[in-house]
Specification:
With about 170 residues, this protein is an alpha/beta fold. It is built from seven helices and five strands, in the order H-H-E-H-E-H-H-E-H-E-E-H.
């Protein structure tokens, strides 16, 4: 019986979090370019902090000449997402790098965290636009909204992850 349980648990170790499933069929709206409100003041943005507004992220990326690190996550249920946050995003080497080189965008698909309908809608549209199939998915995006590179969880901690990001951006 003990061996049977071990054999049943082994496949779980090799599986990531659940695949992302759009809640609705993609529509023309899902592929529309999301506009940028240029009038929004840069002073609202605290460098190195996570924001949830894609339009603002694009604006800040333009004004600061930085790429966006978009974190598609299931923050309250996805084990690999939680691990990535704890091992990388919450650590000093990543935070210092992000403050000086990135605009951080959190696109969350939680199970128990309450979100506004507008935020859910934005996140679903971006999920469809970028073809997200699982979590965590990290996409580096330029100031025009085009994908530069795609990655996910990487072992090795915050310093190794920063080096990984630098290689993707070069």
């Amino acid at each position: 019986m003990k061996y049977f349980l071990i054999l049943m648990l082994i496949p779980l170790l090799f599986c990531g979090c659940n695949k992302a499933k759009p809640e609705a069929e993609p529509t023309e709206e899902a592929t529309e370019e999301i506009s940028v409100d240029i009038d929004q003041a840069l002073s609202d943005y605290e460098k190195g902090s996570w924001i949830e507004d894609y339009d603002k992220a694009l604006q800040y990326a333009k004004e600061l000449s930085r790429p966006i690190l978009a974190n598609f996550t299931g923050s309250d249920w996805c084990g690999w997402c939680i691990k990535l946050k704890g091992e990388v995003f919450d650590k000093p080497a990543f935070q210092d790098y992000a403050k000086s080189k990135l605009v951080l965008l959190k696109l969350d698909f939680p199970k128990d965290i309450v979100q506004t309908d507008a935020l859910k809608d934005q996140n679903r549209k971006l999920q469809s636009k970028f073809g997200i199939e699982g979590y965590p998915t990290i996409i580096l995006i330029d100031a025009e909204g085009k994908e530069i590179a795609r990655t996910g969880y990487q072992p090795g901690g915050d310093t190794a992850y920063v080096e990984h990001l630098k290689q993707l951006l070069n």
